[in-house]
Write a structure and sequence with these properties.
The chain is α/β, with parallel strands linked by helices. About 35% of the residues lie in helices and about 20% in strands. The protein binds zinc ion.
């Protein structure tokens, strides 16, 4: 299993250039609108600059970030977050026709795996990705783990076997890190994203609902802290792969 202590010394993981990865058709899967940009924004920008086709699938509707806001009730919040995703991905080189929203209920993905599996399988059969970026199977956030499980099960019965690359999000928070373990043999590596660092930060900034006080009428509303965001401002991104 991945050495979670290595999150504090992540620079010990080997650094690869995009040229050494030949991913073919790429699908990026995000449990919430923003995970794709935080965890894989550099990879997406590099892949697009090398003309690899990239599709993005966002699994949940993201409506639990500010559940008590009156100004942004669920349908409005969903629309806002989806628009933020489209804006962020356009900066990274992915046009809106290549972005799909599954709209499962935020925080409850786990309860909807059985229903969503058919939809996901149909999507995968139609798009036939060569490489899929999934959330890290041991991420402390249940929606992230449930998203990995949803795709792990959907992939099982396909006639092709995509390469799976996993990206961590909430393990970067030292208070949540390492609460879930796996017996799978996993290796970590870093992708050199230095040349697209500014693009990635511009894309993250599109998520105003998550990074600013745009929604200011829910005292319990979610906010990506500067501390957490600093982990996604490195000149590389960290990925895991089962071996
Ligand atoms: Zn998330």
């Amino acid at each position: 299993m991945a050495d979670l202590a290595a999150f504090t010394t992540a620079t010990s993981f080997p650094l690869k250039s995009i040229a050494t990865i030949d991913p073919g058709r790429v699908l990026i899967v995000a449990p919430h609108p923003d995970d794709e940009t935080l965890g894989c924004g550099g990879a997406i920008a590099l892949l697009r600059s090398h003309h690899y086709p990239v599709q993005v699938l966002v699994v949940s509707d993201g409506t639990m970030s500010h559940p008590r806001s009156r100004k942004f009730p669920a349908p409005i919040l969903r629309q806002l977050r989806e628009q933020e995703t489209i804006n962020a991905l356009r900066i990274l080189g992915v046009e809106s026709e290549n972005v799909r929203f599954l709209r499962l209920p935020d925080s409850l993905i786990e309860n909807h795996i059985d229903l969503a599996i058919v939809q996901v399988r149909t999507y995968l059969q139609a798009t036939v990705p060569t490489t899929i970026f999934l959330p890290w199977r041991c991420d402390p956030h249940p929606d992230h783990r449930a998203t990995w499980q949803l795709f792990d099960r959907a992939i099982e019965s396909l006639s092709f076997s995509p390469r799976i690359i996993e990206y961590p999000i909430w393990d970067w928070d030292p208070e949540q890190r390492g609460t879930v373990a796996t017996t799978a043999k996993v290796i970590g590596w870093r992708l050199d994203t230095a040349e697209v660092g500014t693009l990635k930060q511009n894309a993250i900034a599109q998520y105003r609902s998550q990074t600013t006080d745009l929604i200011n009428d829910d005292p319990e509303g979610f906010r990506l802290t500067a501390e957490l965001l600093s982990n996604f401002a490195q000149p590389w991104e960290l990925f895991f792969e089962e071996i």
